[in-house]
Write a structure and sequence with these properties.
single chain; alpha/beta; Rossmann fold; 6-stranded mixed β-sheet; 4-stranded antiparallel β-sheet; 10 helices; binds adenosine-5'-diphosphate
Length: 285
């Protein structure tokens, strides 16, 4: 599938996500986990982030999203020119950031559709400008008319379609968020949330873990469609090149011991699957 989306940002040559010299640690622990990260993602791009266990990939997602318990020591992260690190979590979400967690949290008593209704209304009332896109507006983020009509019926109808596209039936619409879902069902409902919320940038933290082959294909196809329909960009954290054969990355970064130690094209992911990460130990400062 080819993408023809362009944005003002692209025309200005600015990346959608720009991370510069980011250093961070966990509160109460001495050692730095992120030790000077530089990374860029452009509108509509798929960028893979790979690396050994414990190298700091999930921490980067948490720090970008603003999870409490992490301290930023130095550096910057902007989304669409907005200083993410200065914002509380809900404003980062309003700015267009979504984190699909490696381990989605179970929230008893909160049905998926009601959580999404609150999220959409909160996000859209934040007056963050809608995406500029050249697909006739069919895929831009929700406009005022849609927001006025955004009630539980609207969410349920759209959510059912999203769930169907990743192979889940309608019962998941009102199931409590992630409660008693299998690993794969959690990852698929996260993907359905993306279809409703339409973020500008999604950090996908091991979206492929727990997915069977059919689910991997349908989730990947939905994500590829998102990059083309509303120019969603994705930072894809994964260990396996299989996901990246469907969701083909523009770039692959390798992180080891809190630093970016390599960057290349899609071939890099394939070669890592053969060689492992052993050679990167010596490249870390
Ligand atoms: N809240 C925390 N408390 C203590 N150590 C943490 C915390 N979060 C992450 N770490 C440590 O930071 C390192 C990086 O973890 P993580 O970002 O989860 O790695 P990855 O996702 O690349 O496997 C690990 O050594 C992990 O134990
Ligand atoms: Mg992780």
């Amino acid at each position: 599938m080819t993408c023809t989306l362009l944005s003002n940002l692209h025309e200005l040559g600015m990346p959608l996500l720009k991370i510069t010299g980011l250093r961070a640690k966990v509160d109460g622990f001495d050692g730095e986990i992120l030790r000077g990260i530089d990374l860029e993602v452009n509108l509509g791009e798929v960028v893979a982030l790979m690396g050994p266990n414990g190298s700091g990939k999930s921490t980067l997602g948490h720090v970008l999203m603003g999870r409490p318990g992490y301290e930023v020591l130095e550096g910057q992260a902007t989304l669409d020119g907005i200083d993410l690190l200065a914002l509380p979590v809900y404003q980062r979400a309003r700015a267009g950031l979504f984190l699909a967690h490696q381990y989605p949290v179970e929230v008893p008593g909160v049905p998926l559709d009601r959580a999404l209704l609150r999220a959409v209304k909160s996000r859209e009332s934040g007056k963050i400008p809608v995406h500029s896109s050249k697909d006739g507006g069919a895929s831009k983020r929700f406009d005022d008319d849609q927001l006025a009509g955004c009630n539980l019926d609207w969410i349920d109808a759209n959510l059912k379609e999203e769930l169907k596209s990743v192979g889940l039936d309608g019962q998941f619409v009102s199931r409590p968020l992630n409660v008693d879902l299998s690993g794969g069902e959690k990852k698929r409902t996260e993907t359905a949330q993306i279809g409703i919320l339409r973020p500008k940038l999604t950090v996908l933290d091991e979206i492929d873990s727990g997915l069977d082959v059919d689910a991997l294909v349908s989730v990947s196809e939905r994500l590829v469609e998102a990059t083309c329909r509303w120019g969603m960009a994705a930072l894809v954290i994964t260990h396996f090149s299989r996901l990246l054969t469907y969701l083909i990355p523009n770039r692959v970064y390798v992180m080891a011991n809190g630093q970016i130690v390599d960057c290349g094209g899609p071939d890099l992911a394939r070669s890592l699957e053969g060689s492992g990460y052993g050679e990167y130990g010596s490249r870390v400062n």
